[in-house]
Each structure stands twice: as C-alpha cells, then as structure tokens.
Amino acid sequence: MPSKVYFINARVDRFDYQYSVEGRLEHILEKINLKKYFFQDELVPIKMHLGNPGAHHTIRPNFVRVVVDQLKKIKTKPFVTDSVRIRAYEYLEVANRMGYNPMSLGAPVIIADGIFGFDSIKVKAGKILKEVSVPTAIYDASCMMVLSHVKGHIDSGLGGAIKNLAMGCVTAVPRGCDWKEGGRGKMHFQLDDLMSWNEDLCTFCGICVRTCPLDAISIKGKILLVDEKNCWRCGRCVRVCPEGALIVPTSMKNFSISLTEAAKAVLSTFKPQKVFYINFLFDIQPECDCMAVSDTPVVQDQGILLSDDIVAIDKASLDLIAKAQPLPQSKAEGLKIKKGSDVLTALHGKDSKTQIDAAEKMGLGKSDYKLIED
Predict the structure, then answer these.
(1) How far apart are CA 154 and CA 4, in angstroms?
(2) Is 341 exposed, middle or buried, given 0-12, 13-18 or 19+ CB atoms closer than 10 A?
(3) Residues 152, 65: contact at Cβ < 8 Å?
(4) What is the bridge-based pairing of β-strands 151-153 and 157-159?
(5) Is the separation of the CB atoms in 238 and 264 below 8 Å?
C-alpha cells in the first residue's frame, strides 16, 4: 500500500485566506489529525534549521507559527529546536534575526544539544558510522515534528528530511570525545582525518578563515593552519574555497549512505508513528542552508508536502523538482536535464536518489507513495 503524502500547491487561484498556502496548511494539519501522532501534554520538538549569517532562504516564520498553533490546539507543548551549526549562543542570535523567537513563533526556541553543544547520548548506527551522538532534547523526547527546507547539497544532491535528521539531529562533537566518536563530521570526513591543503593552488584569500564556525583556521604568512582539536569537520571551508585548494577525499555514495545510517539511528530513539514530516519546497536554492549566502532558486516554488513516511516525502519532493523547469537567472539556467533525472543531480553531479534508495533499503519507509492534493 503506498504511503500517503499530502501536497499543498504553491499556486493560488482565489483571493481568500482559506485558499492561501498558509490557510491550506492550517486546514491540512487539521484534516490529518495530529492527535494520531502527538498526545496531550506531550513535549514536541519542532526540528528545523534556524539559518546562518548571510543566508536568507529558510522556512518562513509564519508557516512555523501555523504548525506551533496546531500543536497547541491539540494541547501539546511544542518547542522549536536544532543542534549547533555555529556556536550555540550565536546560533540563537541568528535565529532571532531570522524571525525564529518565542514572540513570533509562540513557542520556546532552544538548542537541542545545549549552549556548548556537548549534551548528547550515543546511539548505535550502521556499518559506516558505527554510532552517533543524538542531542538530549531530541533523544529524551517521545515524539518529533520535522520541518525541512528542501534545497540542493554539494555532497548528496538533495537536502530534505533525511538530511535534516542526519545532520541536524546529530551533535557536532560529543562531550569529552573527538569528532570520530559519534560526531557529525564522520559523515563528511570518512576517508581522512583532516582536509588536505594544496599550497600551490591557495591564494590566501581568507574565505575559509571567515567561513569556519569555530575560528579553527588561520593564515600565518604563507601557511594555512588548522586547529585540529577544535575543527568540527563540517567541510564548509572545502566548499567555499574558490581555488579548490582544500580537499576532502570522501565518497559521495558513502556520504549518502551515512546520512541514512544517521537518520535511522535518530529514528530508533522514537516509537513508530511518533515522527511527522513537513517539507517546504520554497526558495529551492542550489546549496545547503549552512552556507553564508543564499543563491537564487533553481526551480519555481512547488509548495508543501506532509507525511509520516520520511522516504516517501523526500521521494515526492525530488519528483516535483524533477518535473520543474530550471529557472533563468539562476545557477540552473540552460541546464539540459536528462529524462528521469532532476536539476539538483545535474547541478552537483551527485545522484539525489542515492540517499532515498538507501533509506528504503534500511526500512525507513517506502518510495511508493500516493500524492493527495489539498
């Protein structure tokens, strides 16, 4: 039996609030009956990405507020959360600037792994990762609502619900450990302890220094120095280097499979039917929200998808993107998309379906779905 995926089309044909995207989101959440997933007085983490300095394509706060209000309507106790992406205090400041705060959302906004990013519990994972460290505010919760901004990703092609769980529900560095012992960096740095530096290519522009969330990179004369102990292995420095002077010898396939291993480990801390997913297909940019910029969308806004199946919702997201035309004045302008492929795969040269296929193989859900349009 196909999994149900509810769809709110971004197109609006009547000038009436109930036909707006926001109004239809309210309606569909009532129609789905969230009481099937969340109980009265239950603490409900709303997991999402809270933004990054310079990046403005995130989920609009008014949509988040609709979700919060609907959870409150069934008498649960929601809070908005993410694990550290930059230092936790600065991350909360960024979230506030993006409009994610108790005043606008009607719910507390907290960092799931604590103000220093160390609060986590180790959970067994798969063959590649062995184990991951899940932030305590997520590990100790009995349920979770997952809001994902769908976009591209340099290493996996697609950034959707699977990646949101894998990267966002795993802490950067566990307390008293290094990045290899359950940290998020294990997904990026599988084949080497540290990025390699090609001195001949380096122009010492300093972009990597300014991009590092922990100030772990510095330039002394004509030498690039990395504080290996403090490096999170997030890979942002490698991505932003315009000359390709920083390299991580990783495998795209292993990265996508490790994402799925991490997502499965996170889901193992919840009982079945206690996690619900909403994917927002607006401002579908080529890069992850962790970057210090937002680029123009590569395809037109598609709408919102809702499901309790993580595989089905990401497959439906990718299918919608595959049907869309590359937008002019974007990074995708002029791309010739092969039949059966999608713009994100074409942009990054990484098969976006790899993580979805791996997740289905690991039993996280079904790629066979029925789209139900509201």
Answers:
(1) 29
(2) middle
(3) no
(4) antiparallel
(5) no
The pTM of this model reads: 0.91
Bridge-based pairing state of the strands 275-281 and 157-159: unpaired
**What is the residue type of 271?**
K
Q: Which residues of 240-250 are buried (b: 16+ CB within 10 A; e: fewer)?
A: bbeeebbebeb
The type of residue at 207 is: I
CA distances from 313 to 2, 122, 308, 366 (A): 12, 27, 8, 9
Q: What is the DSSP letter of 175?
A: T
The CA distance from 366 to 1, in Å, is 9
Determine the longest span between alpha carbons in the chain, in angstroms.
63
> In whole angstroms, what separates CA 8 from the centre of its chain?
20
- Walk along the chain (374 residues) and give the pLDDT tens digit of each residue: 999 999 999 999 999 999 999 999 999 999 999 999 999 999 999 999 999 888 889 999 999 999 999 999 999 999 999 999 888 999 999 999 999 999 999 999 999 999 988 899 999 998 888 999 999 999 999 999 999 999 998 878 899 999 999 989 999 876 666 656 556 767 666 655 677 888 888 998 988 888 888 788 889 988 888 887 778 777 778 878 888 888 776 666 788 888 999 999 999 999 999 999 999 999 999 888 877 788 899 999 999 999 999 999 999 999 999 999 999 999 989 888 888 889 999 998 888 999 999 999 999 999 999 999 97
d(CA 58, CA 280): 9
Determine the Cα–Cα distance for residues 287 and 289; give it in Å rounded to an integer: 7
SS3 readout for 115-154: CCCCCEEEEECCCCCCEEEEEHHHHCCCCEEEEEECEEEC
- Domains in the chain, CATH or no CATH each: 3-184+251-373 (3.40.50), 192-247 (3.30.70.20)
Name the token pair of 223. Answer: 């030498």
Half-sphere exposure of residue 4: CA atoms within 13 angstroms, side-chain side: 9
